[in-house]
Predict the structure.
Amino acid sequence: MRIYDVTLTISPTLPVWPGDPPVDLHRVSKMEEGEVCNVTRMNISVHTGTHVDAPYHFLAKGKTVETLDLKTLTGRAYVVEISNVDVVTAADIEAADIPPRTKRVLFKTRNSNHWTKNHSQFNTNFVGLSADAAKYLVERGVKLVGVDYLSVAPYEDTIPTHQILLKAGVIIVEGLDLSKISQGRYTFYCLPLKIAKADGAPARAMLIGV
Amino acid sequence: MRIYDVTLTISPTLPVWPGDPPVDLHRVSKMEEGEVCNVTRMNISVHTGTHVDAPYHFLAKGKTVETLDLKTLTGRAYVVEISNVDVVTAADIEAADIPPRTKRVLFKTRNSNHWTKNHSQFNTNFVGLSADAAKYLVERGVKLVGVDYLSVAPYEDTIPTHQILLKAGVIIVEGLDLSKISQGRYTFYCLPLKIAKADGAPARAMLIGV
């Protein structure tokens, strides 16, 4: 059984959404200053690094992140590699031969190359999913969609893709590092922090080879 | 397959270590004010709620949390109920008949009662593990120890228990809500945030019945 950690490391150099403050980590208790132990505080957006979007992120009356079902966040998943596109469309997904009845789909695109290169500046030219891709995934019965950049939707058109998926109860996982992952079947574990009434939560995510 | 979420909810009423600022969650983007989406920020200690301690928490040259092995953080575990003590000692653990070769032990004590009662004030009278309990667990070959309050060590004597476990490479998981869990065998998944160079990390943790 091999475990693949597909989580981005939360650090001050992790790219954040344009306009957001950078990741802020600071030690408030330091052993080298005579304290009993080291203690770090963090001040971050709940959409930092590898994270989950709850419906409330884009739906004013949507469910919040602590209510998302752990049964959807864990289980069999398919990693599909679509490497040659700027936007993933329904046609791209249809052509990709995802196994029938797949409930969790993780998209590996050229975005994952960023994570092998100490990527620290947000790249607005990332690959996202089009609105028709979102509709297609909902119609196929997909319950969880994962992507390898910090948003599931193209930078210039964030609303439709998010709303279509979130209205249908699809869990969105953003910021996966799939650079070391080959296309195929895995077991996926994505455990987001349980944050009261929040629109999202940072998570740790891993794939296990099947 | 039944999933039990054993994670505390991160909210402003969650008790924090005496002297620490409370959990700070605030929405910095609000749909009701015309924004495209809701976005929450959080400002918390990495030792908030259900969390993992890395060696660096109590050892000036210890490993930091992003390097902890996911193989230790996930796998078969035993929940042992020790309900009638103020401090868990080696003798208490020895008397508890934990199955041989158990690598992960989670202690359910009277602490778990707090989590059923909207507990919000830190209780310094919580049940912790004595230094001799820590030594006994290390000698047994235990690799992960979980507890149901916010520290593995008694409030008045934090250093020895932490240092003995962390020096031996034992992962400490604190702040588990075991109130709904019966003694017995489970599969445990504890996925902490992957925070660069940190002394700990908040986590989501679940048990699966076997």
